[in-house]
Write a structure and sequence with these properties.
141 residues, alpha+beta, Alpha-Beta Plaits, 39% helix, 20% strand, globular, binds guanosine-5'-diphosphate, binds magnesium ion
Length: 141
């Protein structure tokens, strides 16, 4: 397995529930390192651009409204197979379908307020890390 980086976002619902630490502990326990992090409130333009791939979907406006509704914790996670590992830790998009013990099963309330984002492949991971953390090399640890 290759050393990878992936983008994680702890979404406004999970930040509001005060579980940034509990979620990040799961990343760390699985061997993922936080190599960059920032707690920010996204602008509507940033949220729309980040989720551009979903622009034509019926839930796009709800998704953007939700993502700008409060602060988010954006992190770059690094580790062996980090992209798939993070997706496994997250669980299915719909928390009702997420496996027991996953972040979404334990912390998410609905398909729109589903606690976390994670890059879904090597190309999206590279693009999403660059979107939020240009010039990341300086943060390597
Ligand atoms: P993810 O990669 O598991 O986050 O899922 P997707 O990339 O398919 O969708 C991106 C995000 O859009 C999801 O995490 C949800 O927040 C939201 N989303 C996806 N499908 C739906 C839906 O059917 N209804 C609503 N309201 N939101 C959705
Ligand atoms: Mg996705």
């Amino acid at each position: 397995m290759a050393l990878e980086r992936t983008l994680s976002i702890i979404k406004p619902d999970a930040v509001a529930k005060n579980v940034i630490g509990q979620i990040t502990s799961r990343f760390e326990a699985a061997g993922l390192k936080v190599v960059a992090a920032k707690l920010v409130r996204l602008s509507r333009a940033e949220a729309e651009q980040f989720y551009d791939v979903h622009r034509a979907r019926p839930f796009f406006k709800d998704l953007v409204d939700f993502m700008v509704s409060g602060p988010v914790m954006i992190q770059v996670l690094e580790g062996e197979g980090a992209i798939a590992k993070n997706r496994d830790l997250m669980g299915a998009t719909d928390p009702k379908k997420a496996a027991a013990g996953t972040i979404r099963a334990d912390f998410a309330d609905s398909i729109d307020a589903n606690a976390v984002h994670g890059s879904d492949g090597p190309e999206t991971a590279a693009a999403e890390v660059a979107f939020f953390f240009a010039g990341l090399n300086v943060y390597t640890r």
